[in-house]
């Protein structure tokens, strides 16, 4: 089997170079991690995974900056929305949408927890495409996103120059199934069509907006501070001292990790 795989390698689709890089690279295993709570080292892969999972759980815990009245209003609105019987029609998923999505996915991407690679999806027969179309239409009709598509496979990657024994030294990479990405894409396209028709998006909304991201939402406060600095320069003839403790500094660390949203399930791969 290994010989037959090597015979299929060629220089045009990148398989030969990927196999060469894989043979040249050294696989670095995660050493013993220190438990931040007990400061004791881990001895098994399960203990390492638990330490990293506990660290990620604390990192993804939302900041408690909300107003209680606003939180209650949002919860009540969501509850009413879920209990409401809606008769609105949605655009049914067509096989052409799935085929178009499959054409644009990259085959060298790592699979999610289902181990279904993009190369497999690109070679699906039409019969399976039609079955997937039926599944996605049922998903929209019953307003149910499968739980298995919400589970991410998390790979901890060591940050350059960081201590190997501390869990904070590893950044997570979440791998979700490609079919989950396809389901999100189908929902997003229908949301954008509906929102644009009703003019729902506001200028301050950066998430789920084409050509914008939540990271760009952080630029607003910094632009405001820059404007105040220029105003002070014109008034006083010089810029204010940024080292002055009276000047407010805006922390934006882990902004996207601590948004108020439900944390998806995840599995840690070492």
Low-confidence stretches: 245-250
Q: Please, how many helices?
A: 9
Report the span from N to C terminus: 26 Å
In N-to-C order, the SSE pattern is HHHHHHHEEHHE
Largest sheet: 3 strands, mixed
Helix content: 40-55%
Overall mean pLDDT stands at: 78
Number of strands: 3
- Given the helix and strand composition, which structural class is it? mainly alpha
Please state the overall shape, judged from the principal axes of the Cα atoms. Answer: globular
* Count of separate structural domains: 1
Beta-strand content: 5-15%
Radius of gyration: 24 Å
List the helices and strands and how they pair.
Blueprint: H1 2-7, H2 15-24, H3 45-59, H4 68-83, H5 95-104, H6 118-122, H7 126-142, E1 152-158, E2 170-175, H8 178-198, H9 219-236, E3 266-268
Parallel strand pairs: 1-3
Antiparallel strand pairs: 1-2
Organism: Araneus ventricosus (Orbweaver spider)
Keywords: Nucleotidyltransferase, RNA-directed DNA polymerase, Transferase
Protein name: RNA-directed DNA polymerase from mobile element jockey
What does this structure look like?
The two termini are 26 Å apart. With 270 residues, the chain is mainly alpha-helical. It is built from nine helices and three strands. A three-stranded mixed β-sheet has the order 2-1-3, covered by helices on one side. The chain has one domain (43-269).
Gist?
This is RNA-directed DNA polymerase from mobile element jockey. By secondary structure, this protein is mainly alpha-helical. Helices cover 44% and strands 6% of the residues.
